[in-house]
User: Fold this.
Amino acid sequence: MVEVSYDEAPAGIDVSAYRTSLRIYVNGEKVHVPEPDPHELLLDFLRKRGFTGAKLGCGEGGCGACTVVVSRWDAASGSVRHASVNACLMPLLAADGCAVTTVEGIGNARTGMHPVQQRMTDLHGSQCGFCTPGIVMAMYGIFLNEPEATTAHVEENMDGNLCRCTGYRPIWDAAKSLCVDAERDASDVPDKCATCPHKGEEGHACAGGADIEACAEHSVVSTSKSKLAEPAVATPYAQTEAAQRDCERKLPDELNGPQGPLRIQAPHAAWWKPASLADALAIKASVPGVRVVVGNTEVGIEARFKQAAPRTVLCTADIAELREVTVSEGGCVFGASAPLSAVEAACHAGASVHPVAKAAASMLRWFASNQIRNTACLGGNLATASPISDMNPLLAAAGAELDVASAARGTRSVPVAAFFKGYRKVDLAEDELIVRVRVPAAAPAGSGSVVHVEVVEPYKQARRREDDISIVTATFRASFAPSADGSAWRVKDAALAFGGLAPTTILAPKAAAALVGQEWSHDTFAAAADALRAEVRVPPGAPGGQSEFRTALAASFLFKFYIKCCQDLAARVAEAGPGASLPAAPAVDSPARSASCSFVTEPKPSTAGLQTYALRTKIAPGLDADVFPESSAAAVKSSAAPNGAAYSANYSANGGSGTAVTGSHGKGGSGKPTPHAAGHLHTTGEAVYVDDMPPPPGMLHAWLVQSTRAAARITRVDAAAARAMPGVKGVFFREDLPGDNVMGPVAHDEECFADGIVRCVGQVIGIAVGATLAEAKAAALAVKVEYEDFDEWGPDSANPIVTIEEAIAASSFYEATDHTLESGRSVEAALAEPGLKVVKGEFKLGGQEHFYLEANTTLAIPVEGGGMAVHTSTQAVTKTQKFVASTCGLPANKVVCHMKRMGGGFGGKETRSVFASAAAAVAALLTNQPVRLSLERDIDMQISGQRHAFIARYTAAATVPTDGSPPRLAALDAELFSNGGCALDLSGPVMDRALFHLDNCYQWPSLRCRGRVCRTHQAPHTAFRGFGGPQGMMVAEAIMEHLCSEVGADPVSFRGANLYSEGDETHFGQRLEAWNVPRAWRELVASSEIADRRAAAEAFNKEHRYRKRGLAIIPTKFGINYTAKFMNQGGALVHLYTDGTLLVTHGGTEMGQGLHTKVCQVVASSFDVPQASVHVAETASDKVANTIPTAASMSADLYGMAALDACEQIIKRLTPIRKALPEGATLAEVATAAHMQRVDLSAHGFYKVPDDRCGFDWLLKPPPKASGEGPDNSLRGLPFNYFTQGVGVAEVELDVLTGDHSVLRADLVVDVGSSLNPALDVGQIEGAFAQGMGLCTIEEVVWADTDHAWVQPRGRLFTKGPGAYKIPSFNDVPRDFRVHLLQGVKNRFAVHSSKAVGEPPLYLGFSVYMALREAVRAARAEHLGEAAGKHFIMHSPATSERLRMACADEIARACVEANNRADATNYVAKASF
Assistant:
């Protein structure tokens, strides 16, 4: 052990009692740490030692990818306490005395997987896999603490992890499969033949009840209950051998008891962990600026994002006096350092004896996440004085007091209500510590004539329910007693406390005074509400924005409280009985009772799913049957491949499941619902991502030098100080580039390093490299850059263009993207027809952050001969190769780009990863050392671009028949504007696809649409799953809704009547063939029982004034092709080895969509070998050259066919060899014989979409059709090879008073042809739906613009990281999620009759938005009556603010009017577009 020297210890501390070395075990092994760094985080410590299963996803404890389990001896219980924690926030030294378990420590794919890992694999719980180890460890932590955990317990605690891929349903299934009370019912499936198109046909196998296995395409119907009844997943965790081993696990002897105090002194920082309060106070008094930490959840974020790492840290986690937690009728005591999870558990246990404990238990369920609650404490929450803290208002309302102590002055008491002095300022001296929180005794309930009723209720509203800071939070307390004459209930005491309305937690004393002493009645409430509005009104322009909404939430919470108190008083009267002579509670009519409902106090919802698909027993012929009409595959098909038997045995040994869960595992593979080929590596943490790769010798770390201005001219760059810093190996700028500086996927209008002008906040100016990441970061931040105002596109350099509307006003467009489509007769003439119902409007759609869990990462390694190997997380291998070569001044053949797997991409890494790879490669070339550049989450989000925001302006018309039949569409004239950002990127083709999809599935006899991309000073926006298609279809549906509401049509009938029919021509001239939307519509209308459910929702709405339900159904068609013709091509390389196994390399990249798995299935089917005999190693530019970015959902089409082409070449060569061998020869024997005869066992395959099935010429001006009805757009070419189609129904419930909503059920029918892998396709559909749902509900992008002037500097992205930007969480998924793959459909334009699936289902998530509109419409009808009007404005996303304010009830209108806004009934929230 290396001893470290110490400065003089604080007076009164016995230094000899302090250890000076760290005690830590990882996965059962003691780790020797000679010189621990007080600033080092546990995650960095683990990853440096090769435990890379824990990932850096966000760095702020918001995604859970870093989750590990920490076990330590707990003095309070005298036993071991296991806690899942965020390793990205936990200091290494906070793990002193702990045994840390990472995902590698619980199981692996070689020696055996833990049940959690196995269930996640078997039940398809991973896609990209980056988040999976963290989810596995969160789940493991739950079952480690509660081996007999119930589903309710799991649902309460799986709140600290995010997944961007799966939609969560399969993860829920995996977790529930381990619960003791999981519902397992193999019979819980509908009739398997119910959806078969041939059911009952004469002579068909299914007719007359024949064995379903005889059917060539029989249905698999799998529900959550039936799935969990499968033998391989039917055993609860408590009954597994692993549970027994886990329960018998003990801490190492040296950790099994009190650890004593610890003191670590490093050159730059010190760490103190005393065991007594006296020592802690002595340190606090003696060391200026010492920071107190327990969970480090605040200090850790400050250190990472604000460069505010403390020099001295005082950890109070082991001080017994500070960890005390008791709850009784006599009051509650919460030690300042007690973990919030311990406080929550004690409050839950004591909820029946103290109303504050009950309220605290409810609030803490939603406070941050399980991982945060396991480490964070109340003392930290109070001391940081967050104005949006949930617990601080609760404690203030409860009349709690703090015991604050110092060594010099002893202990004093401070009321929580008086503790907050200003923004982030508290009544706590430099030498003081918060010791405990004391909540006074509950008011005695009393009996007889002396009766007291105390009600304490917590409230909050956030952007997302789980793991989200509140927009407004509140706790109200009121005590009641009968009046002197016994005629009414009178308020004896009241307190109303809020967060989110001011710079500090506040009380509303005037509103409370309006209650105290008054008879509890609606008049009393109204008086208090008037006082509250005057007392807490949030003025326009206040930091945080949402002024009217925040004010409305405060009043809405008070109304909820009024109704809740009425209900509680009525319950008390009923409980006491008529003999008690208690006064009646104020009457509340039945519909108004719904106001008291709050998700804060309700149980977290349970979820379930149903999936229906055809399980093929033979390959369905598709494009392959046309391209290879005389396939020779049968000539080498083996009848008994030994490697197949080995595969099956290996799978069974690892606990693999049966057909209904993962499908058959015989030979071949195409069409089988097998798990993701790397699923077992995802769940065990063995899957390697770029940042997991071991550092090569001499590797340097890099950090970008970035612009802090959105539009400016650089006048000076000074890097002298940066270059002189320790460990810095170089800081490089434009002048250092050895090659070209320009780049860009279409127009070369971007730069590797800014050359004199910056055009967006975060633009890369240079790159710093150092021996450590900290040194590189410090150097980059030390570079001094000076600017002067300069906006080359706008009229005001001091206020650069940021939004679409500003760009329109300044005529700032990318002119080359200005495209128009026209079809049918003249739009002007069509709109002028008499008798039409014409509407005009505007619809706005916000952007969306990709939020792939793995941020952009590159490892660039110089290789011999002056070349460069680039390992990167990219969808565009060749594009990366090209621009690395050009910026480094190298020929392309000297640059090899490697891509093993991505932790998600969704289009965000199609082009926007390239700049980072180029910068890293330049640094590697200039230093001649390997360089790793890993963007942190906030940087990645600021500069990598997003889904484009759109504004649509339209005029639309419909005819209204007099016979009562549904109205028919007549004409549409629309203009679309998108926010392209400061460089073109792919904004042009994104807009083109939006124009192509503006019809959605509806036939417009006359249509004209124009698209223009706006040039602004945001980061360049880019591809995102759907590539403009969702925006076009969202506009289409908004127009349909506008027309439908204006003409008073039934929305289901109106949409159904205007669907295209088979053979109809779209507005871009493509005739619809194999058009299955009408059939899918009919099937879903019937199977979803939408008519009955709409009637039930209407009945529900009549009975619930403040809760409303809505249902909506929408269709989709998504064109499959790259719209750039040259891109519709792909190559693959297949090697057959003499042992009968195959290695495949192709041009596509794996980002979780299962592309490699599907290609392996195609190849396995070609050779009739088990899927395990086929392997894809990586995607690399030296294996398959000149590749196309993996995008447009085209990859399985391209690379499945390319691989099949290669297989056919090999098989053709093997045919004569096979014929010469005995019957039954295995593929290994055939391959060996061929090799001995010098037959080539490798082949490069290639496929391109036929010329007549791709390519649309925008420059061609087509002549009129023969009929004269508009231009003949079919002459311009066919933009799409085929369409993936579908229909979705969503049902939602909305809290009118808060804007909170939940998705009760979602039903999807999707035509994916004859699926290559139904399990993967269902996963893609569910994940896409969740992303689409997020796009149009909770995922709000906020920029520093005119509407958000409180964000600075102008052009900065505010919603960076999971703290500010919210993607759907575990609690947001539909409670009942049903996915049906349309059966009996084929596709002759793709391999094995399959269809693309990655992007098309995303738009179906918009059904949630449309259902929410229906719920809002019901609320407006009730609260506004005729004033509600037919159509109302609600832009996307439908955030809680937009939903709540659109309801336009009396409370909302009053708050809008209070800020002198005139749009009280049609409130339009501020937004960034």
In short: The longest strand covers residues 968-981. The longest helix spans residues 547-576.
